[in-house]
Inverse folding.
C-alpha cells in the first residue's frame, strides 16, 4: 500500500508510458518514461537511481538513459517536473505482460528523502502505483534555527568605527537556502551627516575551527554619503550557511 508519507511527500513519481524502440544493431528494447514532480515551493536537487522491470518472473536492469536524460542528477524548479526515459535492452525480446512491474528509486537530496516506488502494468496498458517506501536519508537543516543561532554570533569592531566616524547598527543575517548567506545592516555618521574619507564595509565568515571561509566587502564614498545608508553583503558557496559559525563585520579605509 502507498504510505501517507509518499502522498504528502516532497516529490511525485509516475510511469507515463512504455514503448518499443530499436537500439544497437536494430535490437529491440523497451523504453519506460518516468515523470518526476517537485511538489515543494523551492528548487529541488534529485538523484535518479537504477530502474528495473520484472516481467514473467525475469528481472531486467536499466541499460541506459535516453539521450538528453542521461544525467542522473537534476534540478527541478517548484511545481515543475522532468521526464526520464529508461532503456531496457534485454527486456525487448519479450512482450510485457499485464502483470509486469517496474521499480525506480529517486532521492530528494534537498529535503533528505529517498522514494522507492513500484508500479504494475494494468490490462488497459497503463501503469499504476503499487507501493512506495520512503526512507529518511538525513535530517534536512532547519534554516530558521541556523539563522537564529548565527544571529547571536555577529561581532563588530567598534574601535574601528570610532576611528572612521561611523556607527553600524541592526546587523542581521538572511538565509534563503544552505548555499547562500546575506549580511544586512545600517551605517550612519557618528557626528553630523558627513564622513572624512571613503570607507569599506567588510564581513568575514568563520567555520567551527575559526577559519575564514568567506569574505565580502561594500563601499561607501564620502561624496555620496548623506549621513545614513544601508549595506548588503552576499555570499554564495556550497553549504555556506551551514558551515558558518561566526560573523565579523567591520569598517576600514578605502
Amino acid at each position: 500500500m502507498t504510505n501517507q508519507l509518499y502522498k504528502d511527500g516532497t516529490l511525485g513519481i509516475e510511469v507515463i508510458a512504455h514503448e518499443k524502440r530499436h537500439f544497437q544493431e536494430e535490437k529491440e528494447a523497451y523504453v519506460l518514461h518516468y515523470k518526476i514532480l517537485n511538489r515543494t515551493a523551492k528548487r529541488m536537487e534529485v538523484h535518479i537511481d537504477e530502474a528495473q522491470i520484472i516481467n514473467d518472473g525475469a528481472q531486467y536492469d536499466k541499460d541506459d538513459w535516453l539521450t538528453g536524460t542521461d544525467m542522473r542528477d537534476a534540478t527541478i524548479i517548484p511545481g515543475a517536473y522532468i521526464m526520464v526515459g529508461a532503456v531496457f535492452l534485454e527486456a525487448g525480446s519479450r512482450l510485457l505482460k499485464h502483470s509486469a512491474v517496474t521499480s525506480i528509486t529517486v532521492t530528494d537530496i534537498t529535503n533528505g528523502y529517498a522514494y522507492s516506488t513500484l508500479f504494475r502494468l494494468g490490462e488497459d496498458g497503463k501503469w499504476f502505483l503499487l507501493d512506495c517506501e520512503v526512507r529518511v536519508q538525513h535530517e534536512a537543516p532547519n534554516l530558521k534555527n541556523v539563522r537564529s543561532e548565527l544571529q547571536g554570533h555577529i561581532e563588530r569592531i567598534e574601535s574601528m568605527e570610532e576611528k572612521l566616524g561611523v556607527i553600524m547598527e541592526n546587523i542581521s543575517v538572511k538565509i534563503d537556502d544552505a548555499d547562500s548567506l546575506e549580511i544586512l545592516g545600517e551605517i550612519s555618521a557618528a557626528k553630523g551627516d558627513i564622513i572624512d574619507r571613503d570607507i569599506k564595509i567588510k564581513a568575514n565568515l568563520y567555520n567551527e575551527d575559526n577559519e575564514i571561509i568567506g569574505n565580502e566587502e561594500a563601499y561607501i564614498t564620502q561624496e555620496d554619503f548623506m549621513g545614513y545608508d544601508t549595506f548588503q553583503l552576499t555570499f554564495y558557496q556550497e553549504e555556506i550557511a551551514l558551515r558558518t559559525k561566526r560573523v565579523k563585520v567591520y569598517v576600514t579605509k578605502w
